[in-house]
Structures are given as C-alpha cells and as structure tokens.
Design brief:
The complex is a heterodimer of chains A (359) and B (183). Chain A folds into two domains: 217 residues, 3-Layer(aba) Sandwich (Rossmann fold); 125 residues, Beta Barrel (OB fold (Dihydrolipoamide Acetyltransferase, E2P)), CATH 2.40.50.100. Chain A has nine helices and 20 strands. In chain A, the strands form four sheets. A six-stranded mixed beta sheet of chain A has the order 6-7-8-3-9-10, with helices on both faces. A five-stranded antiparallel beta sheet of chain A has the order 13-12-11-14-20. In chain A, a hairpin with a 4-residue loop joins strand 1 and strand 2. Chain B is mainly α and 183 residues long. Chain B has a single domain, classed as MetI-like fold, CATH 1.10.3720. Chain B is built from nine helices and no strands. Chain B starts with a helix and ends with a helix. The chains are: A alpha+beta (359), B mainly alpha (183). At the A-B interface, helix 2 and strand 6 of A face helix 5 and helix 6 of B.
C-alpha cells in the first residue's frame, strides 16, 4: 500500500514540480529549507491551494487528479490538517472543538474516547482553548483532526511554535499515535530530532523539486543528498536490543546487519529503537587497531564517495549488510587508505558517540 | 459600493438629507414608485426620519462590523474547512460568532448615533413633534423659544444619559463577549 503524490505549480518566480511515492500507513517527513515548497505541498494536499497539476493517490484510490477534473474542496476531502499554531476555535470548549470535525464526517474507526486517552487530554475537555498551554493546544488540534476520520493526515510543522520542553512533552504522544494509527501521515519539519524520532520515510525537497525520497535510513545515509552536507549529518539505523552486559555496563544493539555496543541501556531485550551515528564521529581504518578504548569496529564496503567542497572534506557512504553508515573525512585520508567504491573499510565508532533514540 | 456606504460619514448631513429628498420625495425616482406601488410616503413622516437616521448611521455600523470580520483569523476558517464545514456552516458556526462583539457594538453605537441625528432628518423629514422630532431637533426647537432653556437643559441631560448608556453598554457587551470567545 502506498501514498503517491505528483504536483506541479508555477508561482510567479518559482516552479514547484514534485513527485514521490512512499509506503502508506506511516509517517513521511517532508524535509527541506524554507520556501522549498513543503507548505505548498501540504496546502495542495489539504485542498486549500489548487495547483496547476496535482494527483494524489492513497492505496490505489485516487483522491484528487486535476487531469481528470477530480478536485475535491477541503471540506469534502477528509484530509486532516494540523497547523503550526493549533487554530482551535476560541469560542468553543475543548470537547466541542474535538467534536467539530467528528460531527461532520461519516462514522469511522477513530473513536472519541480512544483519541482522548491516546493524547492524554481527558482532563482538558471542559476547558477553553485560551486556558491551555501550547503543547496541550497542539494535542487537542491533533485530536480534532483525527476525529474528522481523515484518509490522510497532514502536519505542517506542528511543533515549530513550541519550546524544547513542550516539544519533549508532546513527542511521546506523537510516537504513540504513529503506532496506533493506520494512516498515511505527511509531516513537515525542519527539526532533525523530530525526523529521527518519527519518520518512516523521508522526502527531501529543495527549490520546488524532490531531490530524494525513500525509507528514512536510506535517505539519511545517502552521501550525495543535501542532508549529508549538514554539520549534523548522520546515519540512522533501526535496531533491536540484542543483550545487556551489566558487568561491562554495555548493551549490544543489532542494526544494519552489524552489532553496535553502546553504554548500558534501560530497555528490554528484543525491543526496537533507532540509533543515530554522526558522520563526523566515524573514523575509517584499513585494519583493526589494537589496544584502543574503542568498542565498535564495523566492517563494511565503500559505496560512494562524495566531495563536500564547502568543508574541504569528503563524505563516505559505507554499505553494511543491511543499511549504511556515513563518515566525514578529509580527501587526504581517502588517498592514504586507498579507499574507492567497492573496497572494504572498517568504521571505528566510539560507543559514547552513538545516539540511541527510543521507540 | 464602499465609497457609497461611507459617503454619509463625510458629506454634510444636510446634503445627505437633501439627496434623500430628491430620491425619495413624492416626485423623486424612488419615492414616486413607492407611493404608486405601496402607497408609502417617506417625506415628513416617522418612517422617513428612520430612513434618514439609518442612512446616516449605516457607515458607523459597517465600519465596526467590517473591522471585527477582518480581524478574525482566516486560519480558523481554513481549519473549519479541512474539518468538513461548508460555506454556510462556517458562516454560522465560526465567522459570525467570532464577529459577534463587533456586530453588537456596531448596532448599539449605531442606535445611539441615530438618536442624535439632526441635519439629514430636518432636511428630509422636517421637525414635526411626536413624529419626526429627534432629541437634538427638540433641543434646537426649545432653544428657539424664549425661556426654553430649562426644557433644553432637561433634554440635553436625557441625551447625555442615553449616549453614556450606549457607550457603557457597548463596552460591557464587547468585554463579556470577548471573554466568552476566549480573548
């Protein structure tokens, strides 16, 4: 099952021409600089903007297609939209806000009580929006969108207006939602932390074009995509907690077909998590060093070497049995080690440099 | 249209009254039709005085209502749309409730202004006690009569009280409504 989007729209100064296809229940993050066209895409998907060409297909069903003249207005489309600032109706209580879309939608699978408990807003039902905190408001807004029984959920930087404390307060609800919902979700953000926690797939947008899309781990590990040019470029890997070694205070994580040792975690064996391996923390080696504090010596194959002119550095994409790592090194290191695509290489990673992201 | 609505605000009231007289007089283009079809005569009648007041206070109300409509967040309407609310649904459940303070205050201030209408009324509907005499007209008439100062003072006091009540009431209502709207 998949969500496929194709959109073309000519603004006076810039042309947006985007197309991508991602797996359907799941969170797809639209990532890119401001003005790249992420919000245009969200508005078009919601029906608030009518692009010159637009076709959206969910699980084989065409939602809109300008070429055949199928264009539903927002009120008929059932595409839930969560705005950056919650946009709760100030003259209604939280409960009335939540029911606003529900009363106007055909009965569906999303139940009022479930949403209220999932988002932890049971105590707020009688309150007015102006008495809520930013995080609470955003949770209510998400609940309101969900109760309208959407076929597609659109979230336009839902956490951008919150400070980091509020963000971390709302994040667990979002991760819970992600697993509880069987819905395609398009999620716009600038924040890599939100990406690593929430995204299943990723669409990179730049200057009105899609420069890459696919599963998160794949896109994040592509040395030739703009993500790799960021200071905080990192590889993301899905992993499973392998075993704990309380004596050495280490935990083994199985990810990408390799084993990574990290400082002891407080998570049950077999549970899933994600790790983030920053490219600048990865050392490349031809053979394994001895007598070193390092725990992780990961064998792999060089897949791609991409120059990063602005830093006088190169980004090396290293294929693991199932996944990839990124390493940012100097061109000199490449020539000294004689690295070339297809050749073997060892990635040395300090266990303390690996960032473990729960859930 | 905008200019036409706001014209009475800047035009001398006497001119507005005179224009009404031309349009709605029994030989005027609209007045003659009203008389022929419905037997309605506006000149020098209470209805005429009301019309003159309405025309004069209309811009005041339009301003207040428009301001409150424009200050409403368009994002709320968009949110309502994505939640499945059609045009009328949005008008009655989102737009009008949110604009209600402005609409009510516009009405009250309009009413208070109406009570003080002078120039347009005297030109169009004359100064007939008990029929077309507004408060300021009565005060003016009292001042024309020797020894009428006491009556004028009484009427002025009434006028002052009404104006104050109108203003206070509009203030109180908008405060209450805005609180109810969570502002």
């Amino acid at each position: 099952m998949s969500l496929s989007v194709r959109l073309r729209h000519d603004f006076p100064t810039v042309r947006m021409d985007m197309a991508f296809e991602v797996p359907s229940p799941g969170v797809t993050v639209l990532f890119g600089p401001s003005g790249a066209g992420k919000s245009t895409l969200i508005l078009a998907a919601a029906g608030l903007l009518r692009p010159h060409v637009c076709r959206i297909e969910i699980d084989g069903q065409t939602m809109v297609d300008t070429q055949t003249g199928l264009w539903l207005p927002p009120e008929k489309r059932r595409a839930g939209l969560v705005f950056q600032d919650a946009k709760l109706f100030p003259h209604m209580s939280v409960a009335t806000n939540l029911r606003f879309g529900m009363l106007r939608a055909p009965p569906g699978t999303v139940k009022f009580d479930d949403v209220v408990s999932l988002l932890g807003i049971g105590a707020l039902l009688d309150r007015r929006p102006n008495t809520l905190s930013g995080g609470e408001r955003q949770r209510v807004a998400i609940g309101r969108a969900l109760l309208a029984q959407p076929r597609l959920l659109l979230m336009d930087e839902p956490l951008a207006s919150l400070d980091s404390a509020r963000k971390s307060e709302i994040m667990p609800y979002l991760t819970r939602l992600k697993t509880a919902l069987r819905l395609p979700i398009l999620y716009v953000t600038h924040d890599l932390d939100e990406v690593t926690r929430l995204a299943d797939s990723m669409v990179l947008i730049e200057a009105g074009r899609v420069v890459g899309f696919g599963p998160l781990a794949e896109v994040a590990a592509r040395a030739d995509l703009p993500l790799a040019r960021r200071d905080d470029a990192a590889a993301l890997l899905h992993c499973r907690v392998g075993n704990h070694d309380p004596g050495r205070e280490l935990t083994r994580l199985d990810a990408g077909g390799s084993a990574f040792l990290v400082p002891l975690l407080d998570a049950p064996i077999g549970s899933e998590c994600r790790i983030r391996v920053p490219a600048r923390e990865v050392i490349l080696a031809g053979r394994a060093p001895e007598a070193i504090s390092l725990h992780n010596v990961i064998p792999g194959t060089v897949r791609r070497i991409a120059a990063d002119a602005t830093r006088r550095a190169v980004m090396v994409e290293i294929a693991l049995p199932d996944g990839a790592l990124l390493a940012r090194v100097t061109p000199d290191a490449i020539s000294r080690l004689g690295l070339a695509p297809g050749g073997p290489v060892l990635s040395l990673i300090k266990s303390t440099s690996i960032e473990v992201i729960g859930g | 249209m905008n200019a036409l609505v706001h014209l009475p605000l800047v035009l001398p009231p006497v001119v507005t009254g005179w224009l009404l007289l031309i349009l709605f007089g029994i030989r005027g283009p609209i007045g003659s039709l009203l008389l022929a079809w419905f037997g309605v005569r506006l000149v020098f009648t209470t209805a005429g005085a009301s019309l003159a007041c309405a025309v004069m206070t209309f811009p005041v109300m339009v301003r207040s209502i428009r301001l409150s409509l424009e200050s409403a967040d368009p994002g709320l309407e968009q949110a309502a749309r994505t939640l499945g609310a059609g045009r009328l649904d949005r008008l009655f459940n989102i737009t009008l409730p949110l604009a209600s303070p402005g609409i009510l205050v516009g009405g009250i201030v309009g009413y208070a202004t109406c009570l003080g209408e002078f120039g347009a009324v005297i030109t169009f509907a004359a100064n007939i006690p008990g029929q077309t005499q507004t408060l300021p007209l009565a005060i003016y008439a009292a001042l024309q009569v020797p020894g009428g100062e006491a009556k004028a003072a009484e009427l002025s006091l009434v006028s002052l009280t009404l104006a104050l009540i109108g203003l206070l009431l509009s203030e109180w209502i908008s405060k209450r409504l805005n609180a109810a709207l969570g502002r």
